[in-house]
């Protein structure tokens, strides 16, 4: 595994790195940028975080078909750890530790949400809407972690907290719906 930073095609001073706009060449220049940008989904000019979240759907359907539950959760753990490395390295190369194009955090966190969401399109749509709400609005304590944690871990962790709140809301809704059917 290489730890050199992805090539930005700019000079190395901070002002030039901060103004650098990543492109497809940047994304494919290094494994870290390829991962951090979820294979290029983060290059979307409109709502890259939403596009990165959408990447989780086909990934989930494919992985859910081929992996047993234990291996699936283990893979999500590995994806989280690799994301810490990739987003940290890519953020340093871009001069922005939480660049909007780095959407691997959304992809991995929503993959976890889909894992625990009932296999029904209405539940998955509700999960998508809730996750995007928590990721964009960043209510407390998500905002706290987003502001306090730095580097790749900070990028990845606040989205996991958004995933937790999404799952908490879905579990509450499911418990309420089930309680209504029995009374």
Structural summary, described in words:
The protein is globular. The protein starts with 13 loop residues before the first helix and ends with a helix. It has 183 residues and is mostly helical. It has 9 helices and no strands. It has helices at residues 14-19, 24-27, 31-36, 48-66, 69-94, 104-116, 121-137, 142-148, 151-182. Helix 5 packs antiparallel against helix 9 and helix 8 packs antiparallel against helix 9.
Tell me the structural class.
mainly alpha
**Number of helices, where a helix is a run of at least 4 consecutive DSSP H or I residues:** 9
Order of helices and strands: HHHHHHHHH
Poorly predicted spans: 9-14
Query: Quaternary state, please?
Result: single chain
- Helix percent band: over 70%
Largest sheet: none
Q: What is the typical, i.e. mean, pLDDT? A: 90
Structural shape: globular
Q: Tally of extended strands? A: 0
Give the percentage of residues in beta strands. Answer: under 5%
State the end-to-end distance.
57 Å
Rg for CA atoms:
17 Å
Concise structural overview:
The protein contains nine helices and no strands. The protein has helices spanning 14-19, 24-27, 31-36, 48-66, 69-94, 104-116, 121-137, 142-148, 151-182. Helix 5 runs antiparallel to helix 6 (104-116), helix 6 runs parallel beside helix 9 and helix 8 (142-148) runs antiparallel to helix 9.
């Amino acid at each position: 595994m290489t730890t050199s930073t992805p090539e930005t095609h700019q000079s190395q001073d901070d002002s030039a790195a901060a103004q650098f706009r990543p492109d497809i060449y940047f994304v494919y220049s290094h494994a870290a940028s390829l991962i951090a940008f979820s294979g290029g989904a983060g290059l979307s000019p409109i709502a890259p975080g939403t596009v990165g979240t959408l990447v989780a759907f086909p990934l989930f359907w494919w992985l859910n078909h081929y992996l047993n539950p234990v291996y699936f959760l283990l893979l999500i753990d590995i994806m989280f750890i690799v994301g810490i490395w990739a987003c940290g390295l890519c953020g340093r190369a871009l001069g922005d530790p939480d660049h909007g194009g780095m959407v691997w955090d959304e992809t991995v966190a929503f993959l976890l949400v889909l894992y625990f969401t009932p296999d029904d399109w209405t539940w998955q749509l509700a999960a998508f809407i809730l996750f995007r709400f928590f990721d964009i609005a960043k209510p407390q304590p998500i905002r706290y972690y987003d502001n306090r944690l730095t580097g790749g871990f900070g990028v990845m962790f606040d989205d996991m907290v958004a995933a937790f709140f999404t799952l908490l809301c879905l579990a509450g809704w499911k418990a309420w719906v089930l309680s209504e059917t029995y009374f």
